[in-house]
Amino acid sequence: MPVMACQRILAGCPASQSQKPETSMPAVIAAACRRARVPAGIRGARLAAGEPVTIRVLVADDQALVRAGIRMLIETQPDLEVVGEAADGMAAVSEVTRSRPDVVLMDVRMPRLDGIEAARQIMALGPDPAKVVMLTTFDVDEYVFDALSAGATGFLLKQARPEELLFGIRATP
Angle 89-99/115-123 helices, nearest 10 degrees? Predict the structure, then answer.
């Protein structure tokens, strides 16, 4: 399963390291999964100074129960904060401009504007856009490729363990 390999390459989470990544994933996807960005702006300056940093997270999913569950998980972590929620891609783009999150957890399939196009629009917002981690139930190579091409920095399946999701959020900024 190439998506699972991408998930393990991206996260590097100790919980995932017991599984061997597959080697059949196209090189372009593997390279995009390993891509890292240096934090900029206030967050980057605080990190460079060794100050504690709270990672601000926006949760975008069309299912209220999924949003609530992710929020509950994130709120158990002292270094993570949910700054907003969105039920569709258009609301996610709008909420990013309002709440200025560090990371957006974005469902791939949502009404009005899908998560991939919303990620593309978020990347176009400015020089230091929020990092986007795509979430999906669907193990489809095309979603991985399209999301990473749109500028997403990560891709996780919704069946990921909670510690993998948290590690993915922390590894992104």
Answer: 30
With 0-12 / 13-18 / 19 or more C-beta atoms within 10 angstroms meaning exposed / middle / buried, residue 130 is buried
Tell me if 20 is assigned to some domain. Answer: no
- Reduce the DSSP state of residue 33 to 3 states and report it: helix
Domain with 148, as residue range(s), is 54-171
Q: Decide: 1 and 162 in contact? Cβ < 8 Å.
A: no
Residue 126 is assigned to a structural domain of this protein: yes
10-residue block means of pLDDT along the chain (173 residues)? 40 45 38 39 57 89 96 96 97 97 95 95 92 88 88 91 94 72
How far apart CA 71 and CA 74 sit, in angstroms, is: 5
Q: Based on C-alpha coordinates, what's the Rg of the chain?
A: 15
Using CA atoms, how far apart are residues 147 and 53, in angstroms rounded to an integer? 27
Instruction: Give the global pTM.
Output: 0.73
Whole-angstrom distance, CA of residue 11 vs CA of residue 2: 14
Total residue count of the chain as it appears in this document: 173
